[in-house]
Structures are given as structure tokens and as C-alpha cells.
Design goal:
about 20% strand; about 35% helix; 4-stranded antiparallel β-sheet; Phosphatase 2c, domain 1; two-stranded antiparallel ribbon; globular; about 160 residues; alpha+beta
């Protein structure tokens, strides 16, 4: 088994344009989860969407890991941890959709989500939106996710 160390820190900032912060995150959790969700600025209830994403993701992962519930298998070639992370991210999306559907005030709310789950000497990542995940090795930051954005889609198409 490869030995490695994990160091983490967290900081969010509302930026210079917004009057409030719509970010939510979890790091150093007891289940090896680190996640950040950035509520979509300018959209209704972005801060609620990001809070729901992080809360639901962590809660569902704990349930899956306890064996109380089994995640849906997306791909048998994925590790159990990858399948759990994908199922938890889908459940977070459903929680946001349900909250928006139940209250017109929250209609259209959304968030990015980037999550990393430690799995032994490896890590699995789930990602949607433009909150990036980087691997820092030997003092160099390497972006390991691609933005899900109109600009990135246009760049891919040429």
C-alpha cells in the first residue's frame, strides 16, 4: 500500500460583486469527504441549494457506508466508493429539485458541486459545474476536472 498524507484547508469568499456568500463546504469529515458547493450567484436561493448539496451528500454517504441503504450501481467497473459518491450526488440533486419544486420562492435555484471521497490509498471525485478540483503534487497544481459551463462547451466544440 502506498503511504500518503492529506493536508486540507478551507476558505470561502463572497467576492467583490455579491453582498453575501453562497458557498458551503465540508472538509476533514469522519468519512473522508471533502466537498465544496457554490450556489449560483444571481439565481434564487443559491445559498440554500449549496447547503442542501453538501448536507445531503454527507448524510447519504454516511448511510451508504453504514450499510443501512445500498446505492444504485451506475457502473460495475466503478469501485463501491465511486458508486456511493455518484448515488449521493444524485440524491443531493434530487433534494435541491424537490426543495425548488415545493416552494416557488426557490424556483431555479442551483449550485456547483465538487466532492472528493478518500478510498484507502485512492480518491474518487464527483463534479458538476465550474468549481474545480486540483491535485497538488510536488508543488504543482494539476486541474483534474473540466468546467461544465457554456464557455467550456464552446471551447470543446472549437
Amino acid at each position: 500500500m502506498i503511504s500518503f498524507s492529506v493536508r486540507y484547508a478551507s476558505h470561502t469568499d463572497k467576492g467583490m460583486v455579491r453582498d453575501h456568500n453562497e458557498d458551503n463546504l465540508i472538509v476533514g469529515s469522519d468519512i473522508g469527504l471533502a466537498a465544496v458547493a457554490d450556489g449560483m450567484g444571481g439565481h434564487n436561493s443559491g445559498e440554500l441549494a449549496s447547503a442542501l448539496a453538501v448536507k445531503t451528500l454527507a448524510e447519504k454517504l454516511k448511510i451508504f457506508m453504514s450499510g443501512k441503504e445500498t446505492p444504485r450501481q451506475y457502473d460495475p467497473s466503478y469501485t463501491p466508493s465511486a458508486n456511493m459518491l455518484l448515488a449521493a450526488a444524485e440524491d443531493a440533486n434530487n433534494a435541491i429539485f424537490d426543495a425548488a419544486s415545493a416552494n416557488p420562492e426557490h424556483n431555479g435555484m442551483g449550485t456547483t458541486l465538487s466532492a472528493l471521497l478518500l478510498d484507502g490509498d485512492k480518491a474518487v471525485v464527483a463534479h458538476v459545474g465550474d468549481s474545480r478540483v486540483y491535485l497538488i503534487r510536488d508543488g504543482k497544481a494539476n486541474q483534474i476536472t473540466d468546467d461544465h459551463s457554456l464557455v467550456m462547451e464552446q471551447a470543446r466544440r472549437g
